[in-house]
Specification:
This protein is of the alpha/beta class. It has helices spanning 3-23, 32-44, 178-183, 202-210, 227-243, 257-276, 288-301, 315-323, 352-360, 369-373, 390-393, 396-414, 416-420, 430-446, 458-470; strands spanning 54-59, 64-67, 77-83, 86-95, 99-104, 116-122, 135-136, 172-173, 186-187, 191-196, 217-225, 246-252, 280-286, 306-308, 311-312, 327-328, 335-343, 363-366, 386-387. Bound molecules: adenosine-5'-triphosphate and magnesium ion.
Length: 471
C-alpha cells in the first residue's frame, strides 16, 4: 500500500476532531462564590487542616471575650490562645451571636487585644487502670513527678444511668469509724455530706472513711485546698496503703476557677470509669463549697446575675447534675459512693450551698465545733446527723441499740445546762441518772483518730468499753 494512501484518512480524521473540539465551548471559569463556599465548608469540617480562628476583643480579670468563633464554638470546648511566647488554654463558657466568652485554665501570661484564638474541641478524659496511685491536675495531667500517665482509650463517659436501670442502694458496708457505723451507717452507692465549719475535722474524717476496706478504688477530688495541705492529706492522712488504690485529682486554691471547677468533673469521670468496670468506688470531694465558689466565679464572670448570696442560678443546677452521676451503676456495673465535705461559713447551716446540697444527697454527718473543743474527735454530733439509708444498713438489733443510745444522749445533752447550774439531783429520774452515768463513757468509746485504725465491729467495741468502765 502506498504510504500516501495510509496517511490521508488519518489527516482527515484529525481535521474532523479539531473541528468538533472547536465546536465545544471551553468550560466556564470557576464561580468565585462557589469556590469560597467550598473553602468555607472545608474550614468548618471537623478535623480540617485549615481552621478558622477568632480574635480577642476584650480582656477582663478572669474572662476573655473573643470575636469570630460564635458559630463554631460549643459550650465546654477548649480554645487555644496563641502568642509569640506560646499557647494558653481556656474553655468556652458563654456563646453570644457575635462573641464568645472564654475562661482561661491557667493564670499565666495575660491576653491581649487581637490575640489569635482557635477552637480545640471538648476536653476528653480517658482514664486507665494505671491511674491508681497517681496525683493528677484537673485536666488529667500528672503532677506527682512519677512520669506521664497513659490516657485512653477509655471510651465515652457512660453518663447518668437511667433511674430505672440503676441497681437499688441497699448493701451496707462498714466504714471502720465507730461513730458513723453506729449512728449513720452507710450503703454502697449512697451520697453523704460532712457538714462543718472550718477546722472542725472534715478532711480528717473523710480520709478515715477512705481507709475503709470496703472499696476497690478511691477517687479523691481536692478542690480549692491550701497547697500545703495536699501532701499532708495524701501522704499522712490517707496513707500509703489507701493511696495505692487511690486516684487523686487536685486543684488548689491558687489555681484558676476553671481548674477548680474542672477537678470535680475529672474526678467523677475517673470514678465512672472504675464503676463501669464493676468496681466499688468511693469518691471524695473536699470541698463542695469551694467547688460552688469556683462555679460562682465562672458564672458571674460570664455575665450571669447572682440570685442567692452572690450565687447565680446555674450553681444550683450544676451541683445536682454532678452529684446525680454518683450512685449505683446500671445492671451489673459497680457503684460510686460519694462523700462530700460542705463548709458551713461562720457555722451557718442555712448557707444556700449547704441547703441545696442537703436536699440532693442521702444524708448528712454534722461535725460540731463544741464537740471538737472538748477533744472528742471525730466531732460528729449524732443527734444532728442522719443517714437516709440507715434503716437498710442496720440489722434489727443494731437499730434498736442505736435508737436507745441516741435517746440517752439526747436526755444527757438536754439537761446539760441544768447540771452545770447544779440543779440536778440524782434519784428523781432513773432514766436521766442512767444517761448521766453512761453517756460520758459512750463519748469516750467513740473517740477515734486516724492512727487508731478502723474498727471491725463498732457495737462490740462500744460494749467492751462500757463493760470495762462498769466493772
Ligand atoms: N479524728 C481526729 N483525731 C484527732 N484530731 C483530729 C481528728 N479530726 C480532726 N482533728 C484535729 O482537727 C484539726 C483540723 O482537722 P481538718 O483539717 O480535718 O479540719 P477541716 O474541717 O477539714 O478544716 P478546713 O475547713 O480548714 O479544711 C486537725 O489538724 C486535728 O488537729
Ligand atoms: Mg479540710
Amino acid at each position: 500500500m502506498p504510504p500516501a494512501a495510509a496517511t490521508k484518512p488519518d489527516r482527515r480524521a484529525m481535521d474532523k476532531a479539531a473541528k468538533a473540539a472547536a465546536a465545544v465551548p471551553p468550560p466556564p471559569p470557576p464561580d468565585p462564590l462557589k469556590l469560597l463556599e467550598q473553602a468555607w465548608f472545608d474550614i468548618r469540617r471537623p478535623g480540617a487542616l485549615l481552621r478558622r480562628g477568632g480574635r480577642v476583643c476584650e480582656v477582663m480579670a478572669s474572662h476573655i471575650t473573643v470575636r469570630g468563633l460564635s458559630e463554631q464554638a460549643r459550650l465546654g470546648d477548649l480554645v487555644e490562645l496563641r502568642s509569640a511566647r506560646g499557647a494558653r488554654t481556656g474553655e468556652v463558657v458563654r456563646i453570644a451571636p457575635d462573641t464568645v466568652i472564654v475562661a482561661p485554665y491557667d493564670r499565666g501570661e495575660d491576653a491581649f487585644i487581637n490575640q489569635e484564638v482557635f477552637i480545640r474541641g471538648p476536653l476528653t478524659i480517658e482514664p486507665q487502670d494505671g491511674w491508681r496511685g497517681r496525683v493528677l491536675n484537673a485536666t488529667g495531667r500528672p503532677i506527682d513527678g512519677k512520669g506521664p500517665v497513659h490516657n485512653g482509650p477509655g471510651g465515652d463517659a457512660a453518663g447518668i444511668p437511667s433511674p430505672l436501670a440503676r441497681q437499688r442502694v441497699e448493701t451496707a458496708f462498714r466504714t471502720g469509724v465507730r461513730v458513723i457505723d453506729i449512728f449513720t451507717p452507710l450503703c454502697y452507692g449512697q451520697r453523704m455530706g460532712v457538714f462543718a465549719g472550718s477546722g472542725v475535722g472534715k478532711s480528717t474524717l473523710l480520709a478515715m472513711l477512705a481507709a475503709a476496706d470496703a472499696f476497690d478504688t478511691v477517687v479523691v477530688a481536692l478542690v480549692g485546698e491550701r497547697g500545703r495541705e495536699v501532701r499532708e492529706f495524701l501522704e499522712d492522712t490517707i496513707g500509703v496503703k489507701t493511696m495505692a488504690k487511690t486516684v487523686a485529682v487536685v486543684a488548689t486554691s491558687d489555681e484558676s476557677a476553671m481548674m477548680r471547677r474542672r477537678a470535680s468533673d475529672t474526678a467523677m469521670r475517673v470514678a465512672e470509669y472504675f464503676r463501669d468496670k464493676g468496681d466499688r468506688v468511693l469518691l471524695i470531694v473536699d470541698s463542695i463549697t469551694r467547688l460552688a465558689h469556683a462555679l460562682r466565679e465562672v458564672a458571674t464572670g460570664s455575665g450571669e446575675p447572682p440570685v442567692a448570696r452572690g450565687y447565680p442560678a446555674s450553681v444550683f443546677t450544676d451541683l445536682p447534675r454532678l452529684l446525680e452521676r454518683a450512685g449505683p451503676g446500671a445492671g451489673g456495673a459497680g457503684s460510686i459512693t460519694a462523700l462530700l465535705s460542705v463548709l458551713i461559713d461562720g457555722d451557718d447551716h442555712n448557707d444556700p450551698v449547704a441547703d441545696s446540697v442537703r436536699g440532693i444527697i442521702d444524708g448528712h454527718i454534722v461535725l460540731d465545733r463544741a464537740i471538737g473543743e472538748q477533744g472528742r474527735f471525730p466531732a460528729v454530733n449524732p443527734l444532728a446527723s442522719i443517714s437516709r439509708l440507715a434503716n437498710r444498713a442496720w440489722r434489727d438489733d443494731e437499730r434498736i441499740l442505736a435508737t436507745k443510745l441516741k435517746s440517752m444522749i439526747s436526755r444527757f445533752e438536754d439537761t446539760r445546762d441544768i447540771r452545770l447550774l447544779g440543779a440536778y439531783q440524782p434519784g428523781a429520774d432513773p432514766e436521766l441518772d442512767h444517761a448521766v452515768r453512761q453517756v460520758p463513757s459512750i463519748y469516750e468509746a467513740l473517740i477515734q483518730s486516724p492512727a487508731d485504725g478502723p474498727s471491725a465491729d463498732p457495737f462490740a467495741d462500744l460494749a467492751k468499753h462500757l463493760r470495762g468502765k462498769n466493772a
